[in-house]
């Protein structure tokens, strides 16, 4: 189940990277847009470089696995959508 969440998060974050790249990097540097697989790869590289694979605190021990999974799915979707919204608003000023 955790593997499914990691794949889902990678796809959502890759989509966000792909859109932001198209809005900001492509026009600024006149380079080609990213494909989804390339965006996922870049996102994974950045995550690896940042070492963001930190383990949650012990507060998760009192909750069920399903509740933690649901919260993480919500956070992936929420932060992805929020990042896209802010990026889209900023792109309107270009």
Structural description of this entry:
The protein is mainly α. It contains three helices and no strands. The longest helix has 28 residues, at 2-29.
Rg over CA atoms, rounded to whole Å, is 15 Å
| First-to-last CA distance | 41 Å
Low-confidence stretches: none
Number of helices: 3
Order of helices and strands: HHH
**Helix proportion:** over 70%
State the secondary-structure class.
Answer: mainly alpha
| Average pLDDT | 84
> What is the number of strand segments?
0
Largest sheet: none
Strand content: under 5%
* Principal-axes shape call: elongated
Summarize the structure.
The protein has 94 residues and is mainly α. The chain is 74% helix and 0% strand. The chain is built from three helices and no strands.
């Amino acid at each position: 189940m955790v593997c499914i969440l990691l794949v889902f998060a990678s796809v959502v974050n890759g989509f966000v990277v792909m859109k932001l790249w198209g809005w900001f990097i492509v026009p600024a540097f006149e380079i080609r847009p990213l494909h989804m697989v390339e965006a996922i790869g870049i996102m994974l590289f950045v995550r690896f470089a940042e070492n963001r694979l930190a383990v949650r605190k012990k507060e998760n021990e009192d909750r069920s696995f399903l509740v933690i999974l649901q919260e993480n799915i919500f956070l992936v979707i929420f932060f992805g959508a929020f990042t896209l919204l802010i990026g889209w608003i900023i792109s309107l000023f270009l």
